[in-house]
Amino acid sequence: MTSKIKKLILVLLLFFFSLPVFGGEGGSISSKEWSKSFESYLYNLGPVSGKFSQLDQFGKISKGSFWSDGKGSIKFNYLPNSNLVMVIKDGLISVKEMKDGPISQYSIKDSPISSLFSDNFKLENFIINKIMIEGNIGTIELRAKKNSSRNSIFLSGDFPYPKLRQWKLIDTQNNETLVFFSSIEKFDFFDESFFNLE
Questions:
Q1: Do residues 36 and 161 touch, judged by C-beta distance below 8 A?
Q2: DSSP alpha helices (H): ranges in 54-181?
Q3: Selection from 180, 181, 178, 179 nearest residue 57 by Cα
Q4: How many whole angstroms separate alpha carbon 85 and alpha carbon 67?
């Protein structure tokens, strides 16, 4: 797939997420009120599963399924052709690229992503650099350090009634990864061993 086609797909996805939602009135809620309701939405989300599409800094598109236990553990299974599995848990990102391959781990304790899908997630624990509302989409930029975009995340969701749509993660190496979420459904329970890579 050429880079032009990948960029076209990204533009179409962004256009889709910015289409107006009919049947609701968002004019009466401020961006600060929306950000607090988005925080509450993430806090109360609980165990969920869904689908994701990912665009990395090189224009590579990947797809797969994800699960969260609602306590801060998130597992990403990439579609077959790739045995890649990634788990976010206990302040670490663990990555396994091959079924019987080694596990690589990276610390993310300072990043907003470390507590994103958890009842420990609080906006006040991070620096809110910006809150932007464009049509029916709101975005919060959270940073670990005020004067550095590294270790930051842009969270985007529906406005005025929050529902997670995407995040853009900027890691400590200043690499950007964009993830689109869809088909998010609630689960009753996940066994903790599900989030262990072996």
A1: no
A2: none
A3: 178
A4: 12
pLDDT tens per residue across span 106-120:
888 778 888 888 878
What does the longest C-alpha to C-alpha distance in the chain come to? 54
Domain membership of residue 3 (yes or no) is no
Asked, for residue 99, whether it belongs to a domain, the answer is: yes
Domain range for 144 is 27-182
State residue 2's pLDDT score. 60
The two tokens of residue 171 are 């890691």
**pLDDT, tens only, 164-175:** 999 999 988 888
**Residue 174 lies inside a defined structural domain of this protein:** yes
Residue 17 located in a structural domain? no
CATH number of the CATH domain containing 158: 2.50.20.10
Examine the pLDDT at 13 and tell me if it is beyond 50.
no
Residue range 50-73, pLDDT digits in tens: 999 999 888 889 999 999 998 889
- Find tokens 């109360």 and name the residue: 44
Q: Burial, 127: exposed, middle or buried (Cβ in 10 Å; 0-12, 13-18, 19+)? A: middle
**Token pair in block for residue 82:** 């790739």
